[in-house]
Amino acid sequence: MPSSKYAVVDLETTGHSPSKGDRIIQIAIVFIENNQIIDKYMRYVHPQRSIPPFIHQLTSIGDEDVADSPPFEAIAQEVADLLAGCVFVAHNTDFDVSFLQKELVRCGVSKWQGKKIDTVELAKILYPALPSYRLQDIAEALQIPLHQAHRADDDAEATALFLLKAMTKIHHLPKETLSLLHERSFALKSDLSTLFYEALTLARRKETPKEYALFRGIPYRKEPSTYDVWDKAIKFPSGDAEKEELLQRINTKFHVRRGQAELMDLTWQAFVEKKQVAVEIPTGVGKTIGYLIPAMIRAYETRQPVVISTYTNHLVDMLAEEVSHLGNALQMNIPTAVIKGMANYISLGKFEELLRFSDEVYDDSMTIMQVLVWLTETTTGDLDEVNVSGGGPLFIDRIRKRSMKLKEDEKVVDFYSRCLERCRHSMLLLTNHAMIMNDSERINPLFQSISGLIIDEAHQLHQAAIQTHEQVFSYTNWKYVMSQLNSFSNGQLLFDIQEILMGFHFNHRFSTDRLQTTFEEFMLAFDESMMILVNTDVEYSNRIATRTVESLKSRSLTHESFRIVLRKMNEYISLAENYIAPLQQPKRELTLHEQAALNEWLYWLNEMKIKAGEWVELFLEEPQAHLAIWMEKDSRSLPGSLRIKKSPIHASSVVHSFIDQIEGSAGILWTSGTLTAGQDKRFVLNQVGVSSTVPLYTFDAPTDFYAGANTFIVEDMPDIQQVSNDDYILAVADALIQTAIAINGRVFALFLSHDMLKKTYESIMDSESLKGEYTLIAQGVSSGSRHKLLKTFKQQEKAILFGTTSFWEGVDVPSDELSAVVVVRLPFTSPEEPLFKARSAALQTEQKNAFTHLGLPEAILRFRQGFGRLIRSSEEQGFFIILDRRIDTKSYGQSFLEALPQSFVKKVSLEALVNEIENCYNK
Predict the structure, then answer these.
(1) In whole angstroms, what separates CA 502 from the centre of its chain?
(2) What is the Cα–Cα distance from 345 to 235, expressed in whole angstroms?
(3) Which residues of 678-691 are buried (b: 16+ CB within 10 A; e: fewer)?
(4) Are 309 and 434 found together in one domain?
């Protein structure tokens, strides 16, 4: 459609509802023809009402800006004439088209008619790895000028520039990709099919570019045929002068710091002597560079890789960036492999099979299109790279790699196998704690023949080890899996299998009826067992509003109903296997679509077998002393919220199953910014079973590193143990409001319970004290992942982020993006939390006090992590505000304060806190 004229539109309005009196205050249109901007149109519009404060705050458009502007009635026909015959383009057409159409009708002007393009849809498909699809985030990522977001003229121009960039990218896609995209584009909400058709028409005359290969007709980017070579080794810098010279090569601003230099020496010594060492080293000392240099040199010398493990895949990816920067700075090649769990990688065979089905819902079609484009770019096949939404994650789960069994043509393009091969040619292997904790269970372990192991974020290894061996039963997940084989409506799997059987003239009616009857009996038994769990009387429970956590350790889950479920399930599985047996005869020739349907059946049948094994382990095995089992449910959604968890009480045996394999043959460094917990210096190391003979070194931050940190204890808060939960929440809400107003910036509010977080958030929202000025972002309330919430927080000038456990650590926010951290209550784990209770009981059998040896050090560790969110460099300033008075009134309170780095600590009233903050800013 080369002759199409595009009108890229953006509106600023007083609100979202024209029917309730909301009006346009600015309209901008950028016209594109023949792949270039040919004209622009912009008008301020008088809304004939005051512009709300929050709209003024968002757009910087006030009543004075529109005072002399015409109402929309005066320009409605002009706008309609300009749009006539154009393709309507907007970033979220659902809003702009709908609002504009209603305004045109209100003004007595004919609605616009034509095709529309939503650049949100377009961005998701063409840039599937972008972390966000807000216009300003797209503009930042693609280096598109956007002078002021939420101004119609700037937004329209940025959208137009994005459209031009996107159209260019479309024309560079392989013709096979374009064909597959065009085929599915008719399921989209906007008319992107026109763009794909135009590009496809031109591409059909071209050869597929050489950088792509085809897997069953699907283009993917070829892997380089050679691996990075190992450069000549550099010598370890033993003296300070040598270290200084090396650091200067990395960055002229770097200088030798005591802690970093000693970390280098300790790591190198551990590697050379093949021993273990533990090092606590704070922020600001350069921990990552401190262990990367000896790791790199040791790998070069021994020609064996060094493994570096950290807590999450996100941290692994950040570490990979650090290695890349180091290599560039030293002008050296550092062959590096990032290795994650098998299920992180795409199975192209499974993806191709699913493409054969045509009965997709919108979210499936969108995700397929994203994956098709991503395959032309990715060199890793890591599905974490694809940013999907809605029902997209469910489709992504269907195409994850689950098995090493591969057909011949899959072997060439199996990304996980590529990754394993890359490991054999790499000097640094970057992975996560879960991967190393599972290594001893692999047929071919990945991390055995190594010259060194670095466990970063070592304080998280205990949790990772437990989680890798934790079993989880989810009612909704079970229902989803079990429904896949028995969905009988047109286009569903059982219907498709029946159609295939009919095509081969098999008399399937009796076997189908028997299969469905057995499934109904199985489901009846399953639902009965669920009701037993829902109505279980327990000896104790931790009730938090409607949510209940109940230990099942004290009773045996051997009710006859659980055995009946297993028997009925196995009967159904057996019948389901027999049902498709005729189709597995070698002489039967199936079409590609029929083969795909059969493979889907076999996939879900295998999932059912896995579930049957889980059922035995969770509900029919005798309780074991080293395991805790508990149930979680929410009375508002039963049985849907039902979850059963079974977990090891201690992690040391899991950790040793890996460490024992390499101990004595490779050096091991345990490191973290928080390895010690107050007086219990070896708390973290003891949790994971590190021998007391392994030396522990702790280093302080550089002098004056925390000079900008101000710690305040608010002494006129109500005593959390003396007032009701609701009264305390009201006091917390008031303290957060006053703090936010005084700071005039961004605040972290750290909670322990989702219920208290939600109620505090709602209390502040209801008060409207911050309405129009502050953005309130609440974990579990606001939509999006932790990463997305944090990104939104950083982009606001004034905001409060309400976070629970996952926000206490591992979150880096520069000082200009975070002004204060507010601790709502000291981070003690609830004594009734099942795993904590089980660990406490185990300590009591050893004649140890559970509070002293577990509860207090665990809380201090988390408290230190919370403080660590505030100051990330010596130039930063911030406020660490503690609302829980127990830190001042209880004997253990001093242990928390002594665990913090040296910083200014003061007890103040809430009113005095506000004055202190204002005085600091005035200075």
Answers:
(1) 45
(2) 37
(3) bebbbbbbbbbbbe
(4) yes
Q: In terms of C-beta distances under 8 Å and separation of at least 24 residues, what long-range contacts does 814-818 make, across chains too?
A: 814/872, 814/873, 814/876, 815/708, 815/871, 815/872, 815/873, 815/875, 815/876, 815/877, 815/878, 817/746, 817/793, 818/745, 818/746, 818/747, 818/748, 818/869, 818/870, 818/878
Residue 424: predicted pLDDT: 87
* 309: in domain: yes
**Does residue 696 sit in the same domain as residue 765?**
no
For residues 116 and 255, membership in a common domain is answered with no
Instruction: Say whether 548 sits in a helix, a strand or coil.
Output: strand
Query: Is residue 654 one of the residues assigned to a domain?
Result: no
Q: Are strands 643-648 and 218-221 parallel, antiparallel or unpaired?
A: unpaired
Q: How many domains does the chain have?
A: 4
What pLDDT score was predicted for residue 227? 66
CA distance 170 to 175: 10
Which CATH number does the domain housing residue 120 bear?
3.30.420.10
Name the residue with higher pLDDT: 354 or 231.
354
In a domain, 583, yes or no: yes
Band of pLDDT at residue 358, cut at 50, 70 and 90: low
314 residue type, one letter: H
Residues 6+ apart with CB under 8 A from 517: none
Same domain, 605 and 746: no
Per-residue pLDDT reduced to its tens digit, 286-337: 899 999 999 999 999 999 999 999 988 888 988 999 999 998 888 888 899 9
Res 744: pLDDT: 82
Q: What is the pTM of this model?
A: 0.83
What is the rounded CA–CA span in Å between residue 115 and residue 126?
20
Q: Which two tokens stand for residue 672?
A: 């973290």
Range of the domain at 809: 709-922
Cα angle value 54/59/63 (rounded, 5°): 75
CA-to-CA distance for 163 and 169, rounded, in angstroms? 10
Find, among 844, 730, 668, the residue nearest to 306 by Cα. Answer: 668
Q: Give me the CATH number covering residue 842.
A: 3.40.50.300
Please compute, for residue 102, the number of CA atoms within 13 A of its CA located in the half-sphere on the CB side.
15
> pLDDT per residue over 718-763, tens digit each?
998 889 989 999 999 999 999 998 888 888 899 988 889 999 999 9
- Evaluate whether residue 307 is within a structural domain: yes
Q: Which helix (H) or strand (E) holds 359?
A: none
